[in-house]
Protein: ATP-binding protein
Amino acid sequence: MTDVQPKIAFRHVSKIFGDGPKAFTALRDLTLDIADGEIVTVVGPSGCGKSTAMNIVAGLTSVSTGECLVDNTSVKGPGPDRGVIFQQYALFPWLTVIKNVEFGLRLQGIAREERRERAMHYLELVGLKEFAQAYPKTLSGGMKQRCAIARAYAVNPSVLLMDEPFGALDALTRVKLQDQLLDTWSKDKRTIMFITHDVDEAVYIAHRVVVLAAKPGRLQEIIDVDLPFPRNEEVRLSPEFTEIRNKVWRAVYDRSAEAA
Ligand SMILES: Nc1ncnc2c1ncn2[C@@H]1O[C@H](COP(=O)(O)OP(=O)(O)OP(=O)(O)O)[C@@H](O)[C@H]1O
Structure:
């Protein structure tokens, strides 16, 4: 097998906030490769450095030592090749759904007609075409987050960074959005790094689950999710799913008990 260049590479990445006696190691010596088109979920106890790791890929936080590479290029700041989706929908309330999706395209100087076309394409992909002219306040939480996903996709990043994107939603909506995300991904395969506190969610959507440990934040274990795609209810209820979920659960919670 040939060595394929990873899409995202953490090379001995450490992050220390502050200095002197107040210095705090949020992440210690993280080495991890994420392949092109792969979905990797990141779980771990509160404060283990999940958001720090993601912000480093996004270019929002610098590394203290080591290096983070995207497409073999050292990350120096944010860029259009990486789209970020946070828990808060961050839609502009004064713009319609389609104008929200078009926003990044407008910043890129893309002409009106192409903007419309691309925005509609991604709204269709997330099942929101009928709501193109609606304002965010008229949408449910799940629809808002689908709109945020369409907006992130529209500017065509090759990497999607998602920090607890479904964290504020009820359990049923979450499950639906997980299916929706996988459906969108299957039609248009981007590399996804997805942070969650929900172990079931972490297993259901991922090729691999990265478990971080806290104090200091570091890699604890990487668990392969050897379940077939497309994922569906049958997969979710299978004994294989339960087995992997239990494995992730143990990796996360044995450690948090130790750290507490
Ligand atoms: N700008 C900062 N200055 C100082 N400390 C910080 C800063 N950002 C994060 N930290 C600390 O670094 C540690 C890791 O934070 P991070 O947000 O990455 O953890 P997390 O795993 O995403 O946590 P959670 O699950 O609670 O969101 C935490 O203890 C946090 O308080």
